[in-house]
Design goal:
This protein is an alpha/beta fold. The protein contains 10 helices and 12 strands. The longest helix has 24 residues.
């Protein structure tokens, strides 16, 4: 049986067959795939599948009749080859712990694991090499993980507060795409907006999934539980791998009064981080400033109204972004 590649969006009868097949396997379509691999029988029924979304492989399923027949390895191989042709040179996947050894036998290595999920990559020491390349600092170290889409006065307030309460502050600028501003724009805004803080060190996250939004959870059918699984995986990655390597003892977050998901995530960090000697410090929101409000103003063309909500450096970046995309 051959494997066919379908580039998103998948439409027509194959879309229904694909979703029905995932559902029958206890999985769900997260709807963000760039390419979907389908293996079909002579009557075009789906018997195995997988997908790639950016750097992430996901949504693998095989008919029970084909288990042990190499169908899974064939689908995986097709997606790996397709990724190479597309110039994607680093691949990740997230799966149930019971599947760890199967993926390990096919060249993937675990980065971090919880009771519900394991995050893996297609190289043995990729994450260790990433951590080893990061700078080290003396004294008490703190950390912020920030998307900053765009970097607001609220973000700046959080960074200034955190920098004043530790000797060295790591600010991880989340590098995955999918926001209004590109990863490079967000990184530059963050760097410029914190340049006055001498102990604030802005770093890229590379292709590593430090933002919980990027963790796939297609194998958790209940979406509310899926959010909890992503949060635990993200916290585990930080407290077991990142914080020990960089001697981080404080994690700073902004208070989020409007998002139940973020509230739950902050509560989870507050429960789990102290177990590893890491204090979670939650900072009240500054004057209800939010990046989503700034994005709305940009989308409506009210650029001038963003001036009081963002640092001067961000306002200049917004103008460049708007002019470039006009």
């Amino acid at each position: 049986m051959d494997v066919s590649l379908f580039y998103a969006p998948l439409r027509g009868p194959f879309l229904k067959r694909y979703k029905d097949f995932l559902f029958s396997a206890g999985l769900r379509d997260e709807g963000d795939a760039d390419v979907i691999a389908l293996m079909t029988d002579d009557e075009f029924h789906v018997v195995a599948c997988g997908a790639r979304a950016g750097h992430t492989l996901k949504q693998f399923a095989v008919s029970p009749d084909l288990e042990g027949e190499g169908a899974f390895a064939t689908v995986l191989s097709e997606l790996i080859n397709e990724a190479a042709r597309a110039g994607v040179r680093r691949l990740f996947l997230c799966t149930k712990p019971k599947n760890r050894d199967m993926f390990r036998s096919l060249g993937f290595s675990p980065i971090v694991e919880t009771k519900d999920a394991v995050l893996m990559e297609d190289r043995r020491d990729g994450f260790s090499d990433y951590l080893a390349a990061l700078p080290r600092f003396e004294g008490e170290c703190g950390a912020i993980v920030m998307n900053g889409d765009p970097f607001t006065r609220g973000h700046q307030h959080l960074c200034a507060y955190a920098a004043a309460h530790c000797d060295a502050l790591y600010v991880f600028s989340v590098s995955e795409p999918g926001s209004m501003f590109s990863p490079e724009e967000r990184f530059d805004m963050l760097k410029a907006g914190t340049a006055h803080l001498p102990n604030c060190h802005v770093l890229k996250t590379d292709a590593y999934l430090v933002s919980r939004a990027t963790f796939p959870a297609y194998f958790i059918r209940d979406e509310q539980h899926a959010d909890a699984v992503k949060a635990d995986l993200d916290v585990e990655l930080f407290r077991r791998r990142i914080a020990p390597a960089l001697h981080i003892t404080k994690r700073f977050v902004g208070e989020e009064p409007f998002s139940p998901t973020t509230q739950a995530y902050n509560a989870r960090m507050k429960a789990l981080l102290p177990e590893c000697g890491i204090e979670l410090i939650e900072i009240p929101r500054l004057d209800a400033i939010s990046a989503s409000r700034v994005r709305s103003l940009i989308q409506s063309g009210s650029i001038e109204q963003t001036k009081d909500l963002v640092p001067k450096t961000t306002y200049e970046a917004i103008l460049r972004h708007v002019n470039r995309n006009a």
